[in-house]
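During the reporting period, our protein records have gained a structure token line. One record among many is quoted in full directly below:
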Amino acid sequence: MEVKNKVIWITGASSGIGKSLALLAGQKGARLILSGRNTARLIEVQNALPNPECAHILPMDLGDIESLQECVRQALGFFDGIDILVNNAGISQRSLIADTHMEVYERLIQVNYLGTVALSKALLPHFTEAQSGHFVVVTSLMGKFGSPWRSGYCGAKHALHGFFDVLRMEHQKDNIAVTLVCPGFVNTDVARNALTGDGSAQTRQDQATARGMDPGRFAQKMLRAIEKRKMEVYIGGKEVSGVYMKRFFPRLLHKLVLRSKVV
């Protein structure tokens, strides 16, 4: 499947992975719907596209679940349909369990899990009626194994795998695909925007994140996985090996993660 002329709705499109994916898909001739909370940055992304007129801006707060049904209605009206929804928006966390307020856990679940589920569920009837559609969900390697300082983030990302694995099973008969994309370290602002124990942003970059994969290169690998309609893909550096170690050598992975610098 090629993305040329496909309608792709990308959440979290104002920066990082979402922005890079939008620019790449635009170069390949996709028609785009760009969503996020920062309208000014979304407009900058739109203007950077080779054909800005083939993209629409739809400001959206994934944490405002009650508004998502209306967002879907608006999105469907831009190009009279949607082919691919890229659930990319989310927030990370950097705090120890003992120091983390429950309100922070609630926010992480609200945005990373419930908001993503609500948006996808609102779009599902359109895909079912069309007997075609593709949900792409950016989770994380932290959706496959855990790491200190990211307890709530890991929990929300693990939950996405459980939900979307079932969605894939229930709607295979409707020709609806699900691709779970699991990034490792990618050099974006995810660490700077991560919530600390009291809910404030960390504001500084993690060393491991700064050394992570360039988001443009990541987008290239991600788009190939989308075009191949892969079920699940792991993209990153040596940290990807943690997925397989978790399965076959969990005690070894436990020791290695504890020794590594994760913040």
